[in-house]
Amino acid sequence: QKEVEQNSGPLSVPEGAIASLNCTYSDRVSQSFFWYRQYSGKSPELIMSIYSNGDKEDGRFTAQLNKASQYVSLLIRDSQPSDSATYLCASMNSGGYQKVTFGTGTKLQVIP
Amino acid sequence: GAVVSQHPSWVICKSGTSVKIECRSLDFQATTMFWYRQFPKQSLMLMATSNEGSKATYEQGVEKDKFLINHASLTLSTLTVTSAHPEDSSFYICSAMGLAGLSNEQYFGPGTRLTVT
């Protein structure tokens, strides 16, 4: 059973639209959540981290966390072609042995 | 922001030889470093977790005698692929996490592309 699940996509949105990326996790002890962007052939780049229920905004990006529903999302406003990449959702447990679990990623395509 | 470097960025080696990959946190101290492997069009696969001054913790199915990890200081971890074979050809990525209590965000190095011929 996958611990962090994402729709593999591709998710296609027109330039200027809002892209909504979703992620669910199964481990209730997960406390920290992260969104990474990975361009083809490159390593992942941290976009957002979120630890508390609610929304966290950073520029065009908004992360949303709902621990009761075990759901994390990332909204990208005013999507640009340069946002086209694979977005990885990750969760971290709260125990002494910190382990980050990654989803398989959602491929986003922003159409000019 | 936190910067993690990897060296080399790409390497080609002959089957049976060993290759060492270095991972450095340049502007922060990392108590924990992670090593991942990623095959084309596949997701990241965690190989091992490395804590400074202690033995690495390997994920199930990863041979610790083949993938030697050393985390000698708070800014350097190395991965040595011993007796490499063509099936070891992959994109190896390290990441580093800051000191506990300061940040649990993981920052990735640029990756090392290994090709074994």
Explain the overall architecture.
The complex is a heterodimer of chains A (about 110) and B (about 120). With about 110 residues, chain A is mainly β. Helices cover about 0% and strands about 55% of the residues of chain A. Chain A has strands at about 5, 10-15, 20-25, 30-40, 45-50, 55-60, 60-65, 70-75, 85-90, 100, 105-110. In chain A, strands 2, 4, 5, 9, 10 and 11 form a 6-stranded mixed beta sheet that branches. Chain A is globular. By secondary structure, chain B is mainly beta. Chain B has no helices and 11 strands. Chain B has strands at about 5, 10-15, 20-25, 30-40, 45-50, 55-60, 65-75, 75-80, 90-100, 105-110, 110-115. In chain B, the strands form 2 sheets. In chain B, strands 2, 4, 5, 6, 9, 10 and 11 form a 7-stranded mixed beta sheet that branches. In chain B, a hairpin with a 7-residue loop joins β9 and β10 (about 105-110). The model of chain B has no long low-confidence stretch (mean pLDDT about 90). Chains A and B meet through β4, β5 and β9 of A and β9 and β10 of B.
Shape of chain B: globular
**How far apart are the first and last residues' alpha carbons of chain A, in Å?**
37 Å
- Into which percent range does the helicity of residues of chain B fall? under 10%
Proportion of residues in extended strands of chain B = over 45%
Structural class of chain A: mainly beta
**Sheet with the most strands, sense and barrel status of chain A:** 6 strands, mixed
Proportion of beta-strand residues of chain A: over 45%
Radius of gyration of chain B: 13 Å
User: How many strands appear in the DSSP assignment of chain A?
Assistant: 11
Q: Counting H and I runs of at least 4 residues, what is the number of helices of chain A?
A: 0
Low-confidence stretches of chain B: none
Largest interface: A-B, 21 and 18 residues
The number of helical elements of chain B comes to 0
- The coarse silhouette of chain A is globular
